[in-house]
Design goal:
6-stranded antiparallel beta sheet; 3-stranded antiparallel beta sheet; 11% helix; signal
């Protein structure tokens, strides 16, 4: 009896191997494709790129106030607005040098942002919200003005090179 089972298995074994070699068409397979484009914000100079540094110049009205205005373009995808804030206050400082001149610092700078000079808003660590016209949210950049102004220190021997770092945080309104 065991011989018959072994013979039957040996006879059916080649059929199983042959059946695995035959391709059976599965037919069309439909795949549903869903693309999720995340909201995105691009911040750059109007010509592209970003500023390596911004030079502050004395104001014509008050030579103790140093200021600068630079244009910035904001491009949004899948958004109608964004938030911008200042990470840390901008304080321009002069390091003490070998001549004995002490360290000196400007007052914290005022950082303003807006579409034009009439609508500039003071920025701080609390984000300010800006809305872009619905017709320009997908392909065209919107131009803004970044304005920086700081009051120079008082006292004798305040000349020298002052340095500071401004970090702006841009976030989408998602």
């Amino acid at each position: 009896m065991n011989m018959i089972k072994i013979a039957a298995i040996l006879l059916l074994l080649p059929w199983q191997v042959a059946a695995e070699g035959i391709s059976i068409p599965l037919g069309d397979i439909d795949v549903k494709l869903e693309v999720t484009a995340q909201p995105r914000i691009e911040v750059e100079k109007p010509q592209g790129g970003w500023y390596d540094s911004i030079k502050l110049n004395p104001s014509l009205e008050n030579h103790k106030v140093y200021q600068s205005e630079v244009p910035v373009t904001v491009k949004l995808r899948r958004q109608e607005g964004f938030r911008v804030s200042v990470k840390n206050p901008l304080v321009l400082t002069r390091q003490a040098d070998n001549s004995g001149a002490p360290e000196a610092a400007f007052s914290p700078a005022e950082i303003r942002w807006g579409r034009d000079r009439a609508t500039l808003q003071l920025l701080s660590a609390i984000p300010e919200i800006f809305i872009i016209d619905k017709g320009t949210t997908h392909s065209v950049g919107t131009d803004y003005i970044l304005q920086i102004s700081a009051l120079a220190p008082n006292g004798p021997n305040i000349t020298g090179k002052y340095y500071g770092q401004l970090t702006l945080i841009f976030e989408t309104n998602s």
